[in-house]
Amino acid sequence: MTIEQVPANTIADLKTLLKTTQVPDKIMAMGPELIQYLTHIKASQLSDTDHLGFDLGSAGILTLIEQVNTAFFDHFHMFDDAAPIEPKLTRKILVLYHLKPIDDQHFLLHLKQLDY
Q: Please, what is the angle between helix 61-75 and helix 87-96, to 10°?
């Protein structure tokens, strides 16, 4: 089994990579626009441990409410100044990848299913 790592320099590059049926195992993100976008996503994301506690403590109901709220705010474009640039892309990234900042100019997106 070989793990594929693909570079992405812009949000458009990342969008193109994630539109394919076979998404890359790892994506090395570079470029100031993309790093700023991924930093914004990472800052708004709960850790896996926190998310698990959130799910167990509420029996999954709060996660459902969170998803409904996100869809509502995305649909009506509320809080545009705090909203991510691409809501659909953001959700796909959060579902598929772990985000790991390497340094100020690089971010690694690691496919979650490789951890299992």
A: 150
Assigned token pair, 103: 């340094």
Question: Average of pLDDT values for 105-110?
Answer: 93
- What is the pTM (predicted TM-score) of this model? 0.71
Distance from C-alpha of 106 to C-alpha of 28, rounded to nearest angstrom: 7
Contacts of residue 66, Cβ cutoff 8 Å, sequence gap at least 6: none
Residue count (the chain): 116
DSSP 44: T
DSSP 54-104: HHHHHTTHHHHHHHHHHHHHHHTTTTTTTS-S-HHHHHHHHHHEEEEEEET
DSSP three-state, residue 36: helix
* DSSP bridge pairs for 108: 28, 100
Amino acid occupying residue 84: P
Q: How far apart (Å, rounded) are the C-alpha atoms in residues 110 and 70?
A: 24
